[in-house]
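dumping this here before i forget
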Amino acid sequence: MLKGAILALFLVSCSKSEMKTEIPESDSKVRIMTLDPGHFHAGLIHKSMYPVVDSTIHIFAPEGPELKDHLNRIASYNQRAENPTAWNLEVYTGADYLEKMIAQKPGNVMMVAGKNDQKIDYILAAVENGIHVYADKPLVINPEGFQKLKKGFSNRRRKRVTSLRYYDRKI
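structure:
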């Protein structure tokens, strides 16, 4: 039921009348910032290269096994024999990783996966700072998180964030 409510809220918030027909030169490429990759989903979007996605990935995370796993996964895609990727990694590992991402804002899309207890706070921080969001599910895990999600969708228009998306597919 919660998943259906989230999907309905997303569909209602993304009306076609808001979509731009021209993309400014500076926004013509998707520039990914991965925040605190806590699940293997964060790396799966890098299995392939895409013409509209910049090859540099900016990663902001604390040191630890989850970050190491994420970096190893991307390295394996870059080093595989068939169809290798060519991702360039810019990694920041300070304790203030969220604040540093917001301050530097080297990308225009924040990718977040895992860390379900923190994910909605990451999403709200991104939206409040005009950053598009690409997140795995679940977006929220409790009623308090759902209220924050509704706030994020409400603030999305004011902050000119046109994308707040979650993915739910096997890659």
